[in-house]
Amino acid sequence: MATSSSKPMRVLHLEAGRHLYGGAQQVFYILQALQHSDIEYYLACPPGSDIAQSASAVAQVLEVPMNGDIDVGLVFRLARLIKQHQIDLLHVQSRRGADLFGLLAAKKAGIRAIVSRRVDNTEPGWFARWKYHGYQQVITISEGIRQVLLSEGVQPEHVKTIRSAVDTDKFQPDETASARLKKEFELPQNSLNIGVIAQLIERKGHHTLLHALPEILQQLPQVNVIFFGKGPEQAKLREMVNQFGLTSKVHFAGFRTDMPSLLPGLDLVVHPAFKEGLGVSLLQASACGVPVIAGRAGGIPEAVRDDVNGYLMTPGEIPELTALILKVMADHELRSKLGQQGRQLMLDEFSIQVMAEGNEAVYRQLLSLKD
Q: Where is the Glycosyltransferase subfamily 4-like N-terminal domain (predicted)?
């Protein structure tokens, strides 16, 4: 695509998420890391969203109404923004209708577009091939997600993996965090604390841990579990907690904005998910020096490595999860070793700069092409 010599190249990020976590957090990391680039970065996002406020210092924010999968009008609103601000390349960062309507808007405006794929759920092969081959490049946040797209018939050369990153300055070990966590949730001083940091939805596997917990407590009665997050499964999970007699042992913390100060106080993070693109909360746990036990699903094996920063388990296998939790929670030296190794793994392989530069390399390659 030929770009005008009178202006710098301009890339517009499209993010439909309203809260600054998950994919939206990764978009902010990219914009923050590349704010001094010779490429100008713009962000289209919903009015009043958290990312709109945070990103205003590092990019030009364009607030635009986004109303999900049936909001066909988004095509025309985005096309107008693209033409008004002379955008050269669109990077669609989320779904909620944006992955389809963003593609159509780019085509209507006559510019190239790329898309980031952050989830490992499947789509009909014909639809995946049509949609993703409409983009000039697909970026997946894990090799696991890339393999899903390849299995649906998307061509290998069309899909590139650039893994999500973790802010290792924001998430780091903190010796004072354990006392803070225990005070916040009124836990005994000798408690051993497991955290689950995920939406309360079925595929995250909270119920697997609840089934394992009674046997764990027989051997380690000082264990407590904290569920961080909200979701439609909350009522069902609370019912299970009551049914199993675990009301004094399982705490529902809801969505918290102070995770960097609480997470390092955990002894273990458990994520028995059945599906997961990569698992940013697992990266954050490792950055804080907290070991992880997680389901062997999607991109999780790229974030959690056996006997390095934790252990992988077969999703849904209660005895396996029970044995691994007992192994880690009963051995302070093992937890310390896994925590230290996890911190180093995050520093080596999951830095924000590496992730941001990987994305910018894709932009430069596409922007250098001629029509």
A: 22-170
Domain-embedded: residue 170? no
SS3 (DSSP) at 75: helix
Summarised one tens digit per residue, pLDDT across range 103-124 is 999 999 999 999 999 988 888 9
Domain of 79 in residue numbering reads as 10-165+351-367
Q: Which amino acid is located at 96 in the chain?
A: R
**In b/e form, how buried is each residue of 117-127, taking b as 16+ CB within 10 angstroms?**
bbbbeeeeeee
Q: Is the same domain home to 26 and 144?
A: yes
Q: Residue 89 carries which side chain, given as an amino acid letter? A: L
| Tens digits of residue pLDDT in 126-146 | 999 999 999 999 999 999 999
CA distances from 92 to 11, 45, 117 (A): 10, 11, 9
Would residue 5 count as lying in a domain? no
> Looking at the domain assignment, is residue 1 inside a domain?
no
Cβ proximity of 63 and 45 under 8 Å: yes
Q: What pTM was estimated for this model as a whole?
A: 0.83
Tell me the CB-side half-sphere exposure of residue 293, using CA atoms within 13 A.
29
Q: What is the CATH number of the domain that holds 116?
A: 3.40.50.2000
Instruction: Please indicate, yes or no, whether residues 270 and 360 belong to a single structural domain of this protein.
Output: no
Question: Tell me: the pLDDT tens digits for 198-246?
Answer: 999 999 999 999 999 999 999 999 999 999 999 999 999 999 999 999 9
Average pLDDT value for residue range 87-102: 89
Closest CA to 24 of 74, 98, 80, 79: 98
Whether 67 maps to a domain, the answer reads yes
Cα–Cα distance for residue pair 314/81, rounded to 1 Å = 46
